[in-house]
Amino acid sequence: MELLLQLFLSFIQVGLFSVGGGYAAIPLIQDQIVNVHGLMSLSEFTDLITIAEMTPGPISINSSTFVGTRLAGPFGAILCTLGCIIPSFIICLTLAHFYYKYRNFSGVQTVLGALRPATVALIGSAGASILMLGLFHSNIHEFALGDFRIIEAILFVVCLIILRKYKTSAIKIILGSGVAGTLIYVLCGVAGLPL
Amino acid sequence: MNQVQSKAANTNPPDQQRTKGHILWTLFKSMFVLSACTFGGGFVIVSLMKKKYVEELKWLSEDEMLDITAITQSSPGPLPVNASVIIGYRMCGVLGSAIAVLGAILPPMIIISIISVFYNEFRSNTYIAIALQVMRAGVAAVIFDVVINLCKNVLKTKRALYIGMMFIAFVATYFFGVSAMLIILICLGIGITDLLISLLMKKRKEV
User: Fold this and answer.
1) pLDDT, tens only, B8-30
2) Is-above-0.90 flag for pTM?
3) Backbone phi, psi, residue A193, to 5°
4) Cβ-nearest to A118 among B105, B141, B169
5) A14 contacts A60 by C-beta, under 8 angstroms
6) What is the ipTM score, two decimals?
7) Interior CA angle at B145 toward B176 and A58, to 5°?
8) Rounded to a whole number, what is the distance in Å from the CA of B7 to chain A's nearest CA?
């Protein structure tokens, strides 16, 4: 019981202080679970992050579910996740309330107008990072031209053309690229082509 | 689902009259699917949400989606959860928020609960590793598609300030790793300055 309460309170802190998405939450979770409360070893925690990154969904939700399940079963998972989202829920609800109340004022529009180009740039930057990871297995600072992956590059171009031309749903494109790419790799492996 | 028709009139959906139950169900279903298919960070799901709620369902305007993105980015907590709170609130108030968040967190909770039982097998599986790697190409294509549309609209404003800010913000985050939070705060400052200048100009004209 004490463990559950401790987990819940720890994850409320994680939820409250992780500004800026999943990667901001990882050091906070590590601090709470490994350093402060000693609930997990560092290597266990590293495994957890690997899994959280490999599976779909927000990293902090993934890791809170994982920590909760490991330490206290399904009930722990629910409690950790709840702790993680309660601060977001309250804060975002408040912000949403004020946003919809005041967004039609012209002054507010001017200020928000300046935020929009930046947001476009942030989304673009995230896209460029993922593209680099896909094409070179690396980021912009340490990539090598020799690592270029032709199959992923072709997949990217084909997907983009389909999206621009036919307005296909994003889910179909993502899952389709996964299936098609895996098949191509497996077939190339069977044919013995070097990749 | 039809008996709540009168209530739907109060919530005033932007597109056409739909029943509240139907909106809540669509909200839950779409969040569930988006969350289940989001590989990678928060901005991936923002691109997916933009395609779903702006282009497909036409629930939100494009500017609204960008504002929501900026708000989510500057609040604590997981980005997809923050975005679903706001979109849910927009469509159906607090109940909508709760339903949207539930949809967003259920898939990762289910998937992780299953994987945590046999995660060694999962981690060492080659096919899963290949699929996750190639899927990045598809994810990148989706984000690029969304960004091309958004970029066009910023260019359409023909304001040198906005176009310049977009370009500089991209270079700063992508090449120099400046945090998104800092970019948003600086642009907030620029926006407030922009507002003050335009107010001052107006006053001078009147005098």
Assistant:
1) 444 444 554 568 889 999 999 99
2) no
3) -80, 140
4) B169
5) yes
6) 0.80
7) 65
8) 20
